[in-house]
Specification:
This protein is of the alpha+beta class and 239 residues long. The chain folds into two domains: 16-93, Alpha-D-Glucose-1,6-Bisphosphate, Chain A, domain 4 (2-Layer Sandwich); 101-236, 2-Layer Sandwich (Alpha-D-Glucose-1,6-Bisphosphate, Chain A, domain 4), CATH 3.30.530.20. The chain is built from five helices and ten strands. One of its GO terms (molecular function) is abscisic acid binding.
């Protein structure tokens, strides 16, 4: 089915900052502000309920055409006052399917949660040392499993998380890879196509010596992971 978009707008009497704060802090405001028959509860399952990556469940009272849905916050742009979320569970998904590209992007961005669970042969653990492990500036420490041919440990700093363009970039700042390369930066992008998506991977590197080979083994490992990720997403989103 074709993915579609609808838009509408409303002139409001309230100050833009107050409207924005109420939308952003929805799970505090809505159950109190709306008529008693509207919202039963809004619960935060992951994160703080306000920042990107947070997951919330809205439960509606009797009489509502929707009884429950689970949403993940995708974008919170304070400067432009833009708030975006994806519905990832609940009544609405009985009639509407999410676009696969979003599933691929979410799984890449939420690497720290997905990869050790989905691919234990390749990833023993992912620890967050600084930040939340998702946003730029976060530092994470990866311990690889038997499936990794060259690298057993790696410390990475997330540099770019571009949600609208679905671009994710990180620098390797410590670990086995820096025995072979003075610097190593990886870039991943998910691009939509008519059916499914295209996942693009690239790296920028400086060799430690002239004898150091190009990082083809790293590229092959990444592509193998992406193929496995695609299979994992399909297998876990059949319902």
């Amino acid at each position: 089915m074709e993915r579609k978009k609808i838009e509408d707008e409303l002139d409001c009497k309230s100050n833009a900052n107050k409207i924005w704060a109420s939308l952003r802090d929805l799970y505090y405001v809505y159950p109190k502000a709306f008529p008693p028959g509207t919202y039963k509860s809004i619960d935060v399952l992951h994160g703080d309920g306000v920042h990107p990556g947070s997951i919330r469940v809205r439960t509606y009272k009797e009489g509502s055409p929707i009884t429950m849905f689970k949403e993940k916050i995708e974008v919170v742009d304070e400067e432009k006052k833009i708030f975006g979320f994806s519905i990832i569970g609940g009544d609405l998904l009985k009639d509407y399917k999410s676009f696969k590209m979003n599933k691929v992007w979410e799984s890449l961005r939420d690497f720290i949660y997905i990869y050790p669970k989905a691919f234990p042969h390749d990833y023993k653990s992912v620890e967050v040392l600084e930040g939340d492990g998702i946003k730029p500036g976060s530092v994470r420490f990866i311990t690889y499993g038997e499936g990794s041919p060259l690298v057993k440990v790696s410390k990475e700093r997330i540099e770019v998380v571009d949600v609208p363009n679905k671009i994710f970039c990180y620098n390797v700042i410590e670990g086995d890879l820096l025995k072979y390369y003075k610097s190593f930066k990886a870039n991943v992008q998910v691009v939509p196509k008519e059916e499914g998506s295209v996942l693009k991977w690239s790296c920028e590197f400086e060799k430690a010596t002239d004898e150091t080979p190009d990082p083809d083994a790293i590229k092959d490992f990444a592509i193998k992971n992406f193929k496995e990720l695609d299979d994992y997403i399909i297998a876990n989103n059949k319902a």
